[in-house]
Write a structure and sequence with these properties.
This protein is mostly helical. It is 82% helix and 0% strand.
Length: 159
């Protein structure tokens, strides 16, 4: 049996890394650093391992349903992200008139996975939960900044 405090610490570290990478991706998009954004694919793919391994260890340790439930959604998202961005070489950046089903699924899994990770932080402690939540909001602000820059660029284009 592995110490629950160690598992929780490793999960929280993985969450913080995930939120940091997500923030970086949105900032790279906002400043149109496409090559840097593409370089984030490997770190996201690698995050699938710690989240999955730690989920399995939590499961084998008999962790409560809250710990298991709050971390399973990110595994589904990261697996889908690996398939969508790495295997199919598609990029969920574009703003189509009509969203394809794959992109809708991607966006839903991204949001559910990111939101439920906050719950894991609150399972650990209120302070950790608030810190994790703050990093999530930073990633949302980075996304909003990216959307703002994208819309500004679209308005600047000749009609």
């Amino acid at each position: 049996m592995v110490d629950q405090n160690l598992i929780d610490t490793l999960v929280v570290m993985s969450i913080l890394l995930y939120n940091t990478l997500l923030t970086a991706v949105f900032l790279f998009r906002a400043f149109d650093f496409e090559q840097w954004e593409r370089s984030m694919g490997l770190p996201f793919n690698l995050l699938l391992f710690p989240f999955t391994i730690l989920w399995i260890i939590n499961f084998l340790n008999g962790a409560d349903l809250t710990r298991l439930g709050t971390s399973i959604a990110i595994i589904f998202f990261l697996a889908y992200d690996f398939w969508y961005r790495t295997l199919t070489q598609e990029k969920p950046r574009h703003h189509p008139e009509k969203w394809p089903r794959k992109l809708i699924i991607y966006f839903i899994l991204l949001q559910v996975g990111s939101i439920t990770l906050n719950g894991y932080g609150f399972v650990v402690s209120r302070e950790v939960g608030l810190f994790v939540l703050a990093t999530y909001f930073i990633s949302l602000f980075a996304y909003a900044f990216y959307q703002y820059n994208y819309k500004k660029q679209q308005k600047a284009l000749p009609s």
